[in-house]
Amino acid sequence: MPRRDDIKSILIIGAGPIIIGQACEFDYSGAQACKALKSDGYRVILVNSNPATIMTDPEMADATYIEPITPATVAKIIAAERPEALLPTMGGQTALNTALSLYNDGTLEKYGVEMIGARTESIEMAEDRELFRKAMQRIGLECARARTVNNYDDALEALDFVGLPAIIRPSFTLGGEGGGIAYNKAEFETIVANGLRLSPVSEVLIEESVLGWKEFEMEVVRDTADNCIIICSIENIDPMGVHTGDSMTVAPALTLTDKEYQALRDASLAVLREIGVDTGGSNVQFAVCPNSGRILVIEMNPRVSRSSALASKATGFPIAKIAAQLAVGYRLDELMNDITGVTPASFEPTIDYVVTKIPRFTFEKFSGADAILSTSMKSVGEAMAVGRSFEESLQKALRSMEIGLTGLNPVTPPLADATSGEDQLRGWLGELVPNRVLRIATALRSGLSIDEVHAVTGWDHWFLERIQAILDVENKLVADGLPDDETVLRFVKSMGFSDARLAELTQLEAADVRQRRTAAGVVPVYKRIDTCAAEFASDTAYMYSTYEIAAQPECEADPSDRAKIVILGGGPNRIGQGIEFDYCCVHACYALSDAGFETIMINCNPETVSTDYDTSDRLYFEPLTDEDVISIIRREAEKGDLRGVIVQLGGQTPLKIAAALEAEGIPILGTSPDAIDLAEDRERFQLLLKELDLLQPENGIAHSAEEARAIVQRIGLPVVIRPSYVLGGRAMEVVHQMADLERYMRDAVVVSGKNPVLIDRFLNNAVEVDVDALCDGSDVYIGGIMEHIEEAGIHSGDSACSLPPQHLSDEILHALKQQTRDLAFALKVVGLMNIQFAIRENKIYLLEVNPRGSRTVPFVAKTTGVPLAKIASRVMAGEKLASFNLTERNLPHVAVKEAVFPFARFPGVDVFLGPEMKSTGEVMGIDTDFGRAFAKSQLGAGTDLPLSGTVFISVKDEDKPAFIEICQSLVEDGFKILATGGTTAALQAAGVPATSINKVMQGRPHAVDAMLSGDIQLVFNTAKGAGAIKDSFSLRHTALTNKVPYYTTVSGSRAAAEAIRALRAGQLGVRTLQDYLADIG
Predict the structure, then answer these.
(1) Quick count: other Cβ atoms within 10 Å of Cβ 465?
(2) Which helix (H) or strand (E) covers residue 400, if one does?
(3) What pLDDT digit, counting tens, does each position of 760-809 carry?
(4) Where are the alpha helices (DSSP H) in 716-796?
(5) Are 343 and 337 in contact (CB under 8 A)?
(6) Helix, strand or coil for residue 1054?
(7) Ordered DSSP codes for 642-658
(8) Strands 641-646 and 563-568
């Protein structure tokens, strides 16, 4: 069936902010869908609240709504735009749930909107656990023994039927949120209560345990003519019990017999047909009993998923693009495969290499979080690597993680004692922890046999044998040193060993290993990911490296003779370095291609738009280590004109290897690595500030605990303390008491001459400001000045901010611009620069300067309409700012960026914000005034502000005067005020009616009791010092678990009160980004 002409306009719902379980992969799928449908002549309407995505760029859709993704908001967009169709399968669980709500409340029927890509019945059958189980029974497939329950009493009855351990899976949640494994009744009660609360339909599935079974996924695509193809099979190396998003996986599946593979293939196609997903990509998950071969269907996603992104990058097959085209009527045989250019999309992909994905975790950001994995997803990103063998692929993936690994590095096992023998080692090995493969390798080194390790971990013998093969080579290298023989060295490199790992094993320097390797002629070759195992020639330069053992290895790189620029990506997503940096890299590709350069992208993140086959001219899916990057650049420089490398857009990742590239004589475009180092090096930077006569908070550098004490005594408490060279505020803390300083120096960091800590005077009640600017060496353009809503001391990535600023005088704004210009010229910035200032009592203090792309660049670009990253890339390539006709923008609207946090994933973690970054993503609210823009940002971040009810307030003494005005405003709006003793007295003295209630430590009934009884609708709580923060923990935790909005800063509370007033004044409207930008003077 050809393209549908009865549809003229299509609404695509995006996935919203980056959260655990729903990350950059939906920017990749949404961007592909927008491009495909727009190029086919459809009017594309997009709603997405995430400013950091490529898909919300104004040119991606005809009408872009950066609005909260709620049924009410999307209904307003439908009323305004009147689309004929709604595509809900590109925005993860958020889009599916929103589309279902719009169907159920009659909005779609009212406006005559057809859901395409997946029917409502199909979504409900796949997402509702009980309906899904019945559907599987109808086609003769088995699910785990289970019961669906909607209340706690039924759950207890289900437990008798299912038995312990039991797996709890909430319906309609994302990444297994709210689920888990219960080994005892107490755990069962906790997880079920949490699951019922988090499921939007208050439903959980209680399922028999299949812990230790093998887990597989099949990525399937179907068209309207019932043509079905398997894109890719994926095998989870971790057995059942770990969420597939947290599991190490390989593609294709490596331990299935052909008969088993065919059984899973047939089953997944049967599932697709029974559920009734008419068109597009779906993902079916299976558990296979390793002893009996019994196959269970675990679940099915009737949409493009995280696994779709992995399968797409693993095979080269653009699943999201094809799914969008199938949704508008095309058949698979009518569409061409873009990679080969000669085969139809109905040609099932084949791969002749091994892909390994390893998830990236950031448990260290959440003190008190249990670093144990379960069926609820906790990883924040992932890296993917490609090799000709599992060994090569695995070791490349490990060094792509950016957690200090060079391969299968040893970890310290528990010390065995005479009584416990190896039991302690087995217990340690049995824990479901991140990067468990390192423990497995250590256990094998410690003398446990493959059979013993298999018995404890459930990992398949085949994978354990491959790990043992790597260890055997390691042992030989330790014993014999680096081999001189070219063939042996080539074999060692073909096992995935990095030069750095070989150096560790042979007690050499990595540079010596590289010199000996290259002298012997042992260099990587590059192969193409072409969807067809080289059966057809591929014009698409999508490549990975490998070391072939053959004497004359074949390289498929075929560099061009064009002028070319290399862009280094940001590697795996993590807290502190997310999609914003990928956005900058993608813009660099687009801008430099427009300027006539060949663009070469190097990255290892399968979720992102930067690793799409059509973003850059040439894509290398490789680890971002100096060895891997230098090898690629050497190969590309053999032909054509390599102008240089861009390192300032991918966050800290490319900066770490910039010096190594420069040492190899590779030109770095834009700001020099030395200037970037100057901004990071505290001592050099202080000298520069003295020259420029700029203020900085009093500070010092401590190389020992004694020095730290002396500095604190000199500058006075409170102080901000942190290690040097960090991204995302890693291990930063505000210290109010000497006891906290002692604890920090003892527990948080290892301080040494090589690793000093930086201590700054903490500016109480200061307003923090972010400035993004462009510089070409002779001109500076100020892109945006953002005023933080949270006061200084909260990490800038976690603070909400407003553009334009709301409370800064013209005099201060003028001074900020002048200081920005002075710094840009002094640091010789070429490209982007971000500066953080703090303003206190009309004095401007400089907090830090980053002469590189920052996480606010996409937000500023969306708000002002100036594509900063694109212009920066062209400037780095030699153009001047004057050629872009940039003028200062007077904004008639206000945009608010708000951070989104994963606290619900980490029970027991305090939600209190500080200088260490904890947010995973962001949303944007945009409107004509601050109150409405802030209200939209809260709604987009999942915070539903109350319009009436009771506010509970407990604040530190110095904040009490500020809260008088805030409470007065709330009382005028009809709210009742409940407060702790001291706060109540301060409010009543100022004439604000308030009722007193006990703090938790004062005895019951207290504030938490009132919250649990539903008597409190909003919480304002500020505290300082580790003791006071700990004492008020239960308050914030209860607010989080009961979905009561809470604010932990004065300015956040003030903004919430303004937003409530705006919401009470009338409904929030919707407007396209294109319209907002058209109004800018």
Answers:
(1) 12
(2) helix 390-400
(3) 898 888 999 999 999 999 999 999 999 999 878 888 888 999 999 999 99
(4) 738-743
(5) yes
(6) helix
(7) EEEEE-SSSTHHHHHHH
(8) parallel
